[in-house]
Amino acid sequence: MQSNLIIPLDSDLASLSLVGGKGANLARLARAGLAVPGGFLVTTAAYTAYVAANNMAEWIAQTASAANSADLASLEAASQAIRARFTVDTLTPKLAEALKAAYAGLGRPAVAVRSSATAEDLPDLSFAGQQDTFLNVVGQEALLQAVVACWGSLWTARAIGYRARNNIARNNIAQQGLALGVVIQEMVQSEAAGVLFTANPLSGLRTEMVIDATLGLGEALVAGLVEPDQYTIDTTGRQIIRKTMGAKALAIRGQASGGTVRVTEQAATRQALPDEAILTLAELGQRVLKLYGTPQDIEWAWAGGQLFLLQSRAITSLYPVPEGLPANPLHILLSFGAVQGMLDPMTPLGRDVMRGIVAQIGPLFRMRITRETQRALFEAGERLFINVTTLAQNQVGRRLLQGALSFVEPGGGQSLRAILNDPHWGQPGRPRLRTLAQLARFFFPILRRVFSYWRNPAAGRALIQQVDQAATEECRARSVAAKTLAECIALIEFGEKQLEQSVIPYFLPGVISGVAMFQLLNIAARGVPDGAQMAAKATRGLPHNVTTEMDLALWATAQAIRADAGSAALFAQAKAGKLASEWQAGRLPPAAQNALDSFMQHYGMRGLAEIDLGRARWREEPTHVFKIMQSYLNITDPAQAPDALFAQGALAAQAEIERLVAAVRQTRGGWLKTKLARFAASRMRALMGLRESPKFFAIRTMGTIRQTLLKSGQELAARGTLAQPDDLFFLYISELKALAAKEQRDWQALVTVRRHTYEQEARRKQVPRLLLSDGRAFFAGLGADSGSAEFSGSPVSPGIVEGTVHIVLDPREAQLAPGEILVCPGTDPAWTPLFLAAGGLVMEVGGMMTHGAVVAREYGIPAVVGVHQATTHLRTGQRIRLDGSTGQIELVP
């Protein structure tokens, strides 16, 4: 064989770039000694030589790039044009002779000729079935034609569109750089064939394998022409636990003269694969799984009592499980992002900082844990998950957990109830005395301060403000003094320490005091018709909420711009990106420049997904702020001005409290419950706004730390150690320390890999609310039915609104028209300025006490959260009726 054109099937040279994904995977299986049919690999060099010999490369790239990936007719036209060129152009004599010689060396048997693209069977993008396969090819002329046809199939309409939609250039696989290898193997005239999944592809369960099996060749199954048998195997017990017999009414079989034929079967009651072979195949699957380390989708064939593996690829649809967390004993993990209203992946440094913050809690429970040894947060899919297993295993913890989820993530709470109903968990045990003692030591000082805040709310708020100011000033002073990367790392660790020194002893009691009074008001309202809605309406126009104050400050900034004729004219005409650039350069009209400078000085450290230290802030990427500003400037009705609505909301809340108190007075024991309701309402109004203070404090600290790190990043980039300043955020703390110690590594290469993984995960369509350590993932929110005109979620802000849907996946790219209903995956404080223009809110995640719900209530915007796949079931431009009191969402014709 000529090594640059054709290599053996088990060659060590069989890389992705040389033989494509399918070829590289088969070579790996063959080298591992697994049962792979014999054959050889036609390399991508052969494809490239063919394309170059016929002067096709530039023309193919132009034709494919010109196609509209959203238009099937355009993709089909491009595909037909390109594939037609392959049928009329010819193989060079060198290529033809190389193929003939390799085929002769195999003994000229019937073969399967399979396409193997360099952008196929990848860990993150499978491209399954997008190029052609030719089965039972007989004779060298037929073989040559099949190889060329495989090359042409690199340019099917489906493949061109898939590459464009998944932005393959970001994975360093540009359209013009693609090539195709071809796998040629002896044909297995199988009695049965199918697919083996080494993890359950529906539930994600890693301890189950699933086999789909049909009679004859596996092509019938791959093409969707047959209903197969399905066998489920428990890999821990090595036993078949479930069999579902398929009709198997059709089989594809090879013909002696070449090609295949469809044959009618009467096999509904006949098992395609005997039990012994099923268990043997499962053992082979375990070997392949061990070889690759990730769940695999394996094509197999059975002939003459022997099993053959035809290919293996990663199951890209499964959500990853955390490393180092065993399936047994089982662990329950709650999505940190779902609780935060932020489903994006987090940067490595952002995740590491969260682990460091958790480690600071250890001493409060007399536990010695570190960033590396803590077991509360785990990584999966570049996101964080909270380990709630211990809470779920005892009576008190389970009640607290379920109660908390009903407030912050009811969709996750619904899934948790289903999990805990599994007999595996049994009845929760009683908490140990030692645990109760630790909890008492932790909570007693907090509760003591809660009572002090209730006694004197103004003094409590003043104390929090004093602590906030002192800690913030110290952080800024340390930031100014930090000149080296080592000092920057010390600043990060100082910021983490603030959890123990400031947030838990001062800010946390503030949150508890306000939320507890809201709960007490709801208790007092029991027995009153619509009492819960009255209690929710009593939260409108809450004072002392830093997020609300930020939104109103942005509105005030817009009014300063409106009041200046030159600024108003510029904002009416220019695009947001241009305005942002002008502000950063200090070239806006003075009135606009000064107003925005003032806003950014106070709030520029905020931003989308701001809980991640690695994400850019508004002062770095301000376009989002300018889009919101332009939305505000479209609000011309004084009665709809956000500050006026907020003030009206505060008056309406007081009126609602009086209504509620009057209704409570008429219930049994009304005289006592009236006093309780008045006290709860007054303390709630005084303290519940503190709900947002801890995060605001944390984000301000992170903003200072981020600025300091970026200065170090600029120096490292200038020296060539890093490619760009924010590469620092793609390293862990331990790696930053190694970098500060001038340890020699290829830091740029490491960051490149991390960025690719991050971008890959950012494209993930769904993130589970709950994840089990055995791989089972729970995505569903509260009851949605896309087939009906009505579906529902958790009501968090009362009121009814009818309006036009505006789907927003990224607030940086959105400009909301006044009155539109904002429908989004989730929100953190960076989203809330949009609320001032919104008529209503629908979120896929969240609960009563998440950021979006709290702010929506304060603005009086009807809101429903936890709605399963709301951004998929609804479309921009639809009209809906949203009931924030019942959680119902109705499509309006």
What would you note in describing this structure?
- It contains 30 helices and 26 strands.
- The chain is α+β, with helices and mostly antiparallel strands.
- The protein has an eight-stranded mixed beta sheet. It has a six-stranded antiparallel beta sheet with strand order 9-8-7-6-12-13. A five-stranded antiparallel beta sheet has the order 1-2-5-3-4.
- α11 (348-359) packs across α17 (485-524).
Task: Provide a brief overview of the structure.
This protein has 893 residues and is α+β, with helices and mostly antiparallel strands. It starts with 5 loop residues before the first strand and ends with a strand.
Descriptive key words:
single chain, 893 residues, alpha+beta, six-stranded antiparallel beta sheet, 15% strand
Radius of gyration: 31 Å
- Summed over residues and divided by their number, the pLDDT gives a mean of 90
Strand order of the largest sheet: 19-26-25-21-22-23-24-20
Total of helices: 30
Strand content: 5-15%
Low-confidence stretches: 121-128, 168-174
**What is the helix fraction of residues, given as a range?**
40-55%
Shape annotation: globular
Through-space gap between termini: 67 Å
Main beta-sheet strand count, sense and barrel state: 8 strands, mixed
Q: What structural class do the secondary elements suggest?
A: alpha+beta
What is the strand tally? 26
